[in-house]
């Protein structure tokens, strides 16, 4: 959950912690001095998000989704990828933790991967992005800017007679409701029961599930607990925890909409 106080429900949630005499130490903001997260589920979020996108493109995604093992998911992914030869997938934020998970999943299935990170997205080539079958978005942004893709972009491309290849977006970041959302194509996250949202008047399907790592509970739990265990001994003393607390108080004191 992004800590921006303009996100729906954020102010109410933060005030509840303060009213009870507590504080929210958001683990998404437990970072080292360089801003890298110290405990995260991101790798497995990217891994699962990329796999689900391939399954959707191959017509093999079955709802409701069920948790399972990596071996089970890899088997499904390999079968789906083999059924759609020549698949082109773009991973945005490819050098980050979630992007690495997405790349590993796709590579294991033999899927062609294009990886874009900061250098490639600084000046975004939208036509090139639309020439991929699948986009896996793992980029988190905290500042305003032109969205990477909107429904209007797709509708305009169709109206101008510029057919696009893109059919599936796996939005691992799930910044719905945030003013900095890079893909304002949907109004709410999707779910295990309804994993896919069809963007009206377009040919694009969106997967925007905000608890993707729970679909691989064993792998995700082992990774996250291993990351966090080393940090708990410094709770209340390490600079990383103090930064989380400072962030909580800063957003409590920030007027809504500022």
How would you summarize what this structure contains?
By secondary structure, the chain is an alpha/beta fold. The chain has 9 helices and 6 strands; from the N terminus they run H-H-H-E-H-E-H-H-E-H-E-E-E-H-H. About 40% of the residues lie in helices and about 10% in strands.
List the helices and strands and how they pair.
Layout: H1 10-19, H2 42-57, H3 70-83, E1 88-92, H4 97-108, E2 112-116, H5 118-121, H6 126-130, E3 134-137, H7 151-159, E4 168-171, E5 197-198, E6 205-207, H8 217-232, H9 239-252
Parallel strand pairs: 1-2, 1-3, 3-4, 4-6
Antiparallel strand pairs: 5-6
Helix pairs in contact: 2-3, 2-4
Report on this structure:
The chain is 39% helix and 9% strand. By secondary structure, it is an alpha/beta fold. The chain has a six-stranded mixed sheet. Helix 4 (97-108) links the parallel strand 1 and strand 2 (112-116). Helix 2 (42-57) packs across helix 4. It starts with 9 loop residues before the first helix and ends in a 6-residue tail after the last helix. Residues 1-5 have low confidence and may be disordered.
Low-confidence stretches: 1-5
Helix content range of the residues, please?
25-40%
> Biggest β-sheet: count, sense, barrel?
6 strands, mixed
Quickly give the structural class. Answer: alpha/beta
Distance between the termini: 18 Å
- Oligomer state equals single chain
What general outline do the C-alpha atoms trace?
Answer: globular
| Main sheet strand line-up | 2-1-3-4-6-5
Reading the helices and strands in chain order gives HHHEHEHHEHEEEHH
Q: In DSSP terms, counting alpha (H) and pi (I) runs of 4 or more, how many helices?
A: 9
Integer average pLDDT: 92
Supply Rg. 19 Å
Number of strands: 6
Residues in β-strands, percent: 5-15%
